[in-house]
Amino acid sequence: MSDAAALPNTFAEFAAYLEGLGLFHMDLRLCRMSRTLDALGLDRPPQTVVQVLGTNGKGTTATLLAALGAAHGLSCGLYTSPHFLSVRERIRRYQGDLPGAAATPGAPLGDGFFSEADWTGAARTVLAATAPFGDAGRLTYFELLTVMAARLFAARSVDVAIYEAGLGGDHDATTALHRDMTVFTPIGMDHAHILGPTLCDIARDKAGAIPVGGLAVTGPQAPEALAALAKRARTAGARLVSAREVLDYDAAAGVVRPLTVAGPLIEAAPLGLPGAFQAENAATALAAFFLLAEKLRIAIRPEAVRRALGQTRLPGRMQRLRLPGAAGELLVDCAHNVPALVALEAACAADGISPAAVIFTCLADKDFAGMAGIVRRLTTGPIIVPGLFCPGRTRDAADVAHGLGERAEAVPDVAAALTRVRDIPGTVVVCGSMYLLAEVMGRLDYSPYVYYFQ
Question: What residue ranges are annotated as transmembrane (predicted)?
């Protein structure tokens, strides 16, 4: 199907077209995005826009920010990536409660996923807008979804749209949108083959997303990453603030204490997400929301903050799953690079988890040498390495197993890996790639749809 000749009439036709674009095809230029957004009148979206960048914690921070907004009565569009089982996971809406109506225990913080008809309609609109540009104007997989998100959020009249950047910042598709705030989670070594060989290179690229005269909020950063953010802020005449300067969040005690921003002291606000490392993501989201509330003149409501922090869940983050008929349980975590694996190791130690085995593999563009030692430390038991089908980025399972040492064994696929650990009592950690987690969830017939809103 060419964009001009046949627009998709069904979600299945759209999905087939999207797959044909190639999930991992990238072209780091913003000209196609800018031209398409301008054609649709979306270069300056009709709502407040927040862009979340960094290496790890972007999805969690973006989701918590959306939940905080929804609990305060805002309609929040949320764009994240990648997805586990359906592309529809990437574009969602957290529907705001009416003031004072947030007391129903367990009520969802959003209506979640757009319908297949909504997706098909948005795809038709965007592809029709790009058709006059010919093949040179054809959007990549990520670009198309980014513009579709902007279209869906505009059509649904959300109050705040939150976009998780895909890769880098300076040339990321989300950077083509006008942004009112940029939020930075910790920046670490990842995608070095694209963004540059050093942390300074990577941070400089991500910092490039800070808009002229904008507001940027950052979580904890390594000195060289913070220096890159500060330099870009100075050059762009932007305001850069540290989340730790805005407020203090003691997740263990459940206390939110504003420091340089208006708002009440909030007690009894524990974080529902498992893993001690999530406290920093929550603190960054809280700081961004308190500043956003000031901008939008919204009063901070303690009960709304408690609800958002306590009820938000995300799949694939220290998540426990039951393998039917198995002796133990699975603990799946989307740790896919060195910083994330370090956080996973610390979280297991803090929670007293001694994994009986690990199912692990990683993509070819990841720092396997840096990850291998951490994976070996996670367990004294077997390490099962399944084959993973990821065209263009697959790493051979036998090579991974060889690099992990004598306790590692390669198996053909995820089904074989699950069979291999079925009789192992205790906790089996699954980590290394979100695509690995997606295959595990698919094999277990698990739907992440029910896990976003609890």
Answer: none
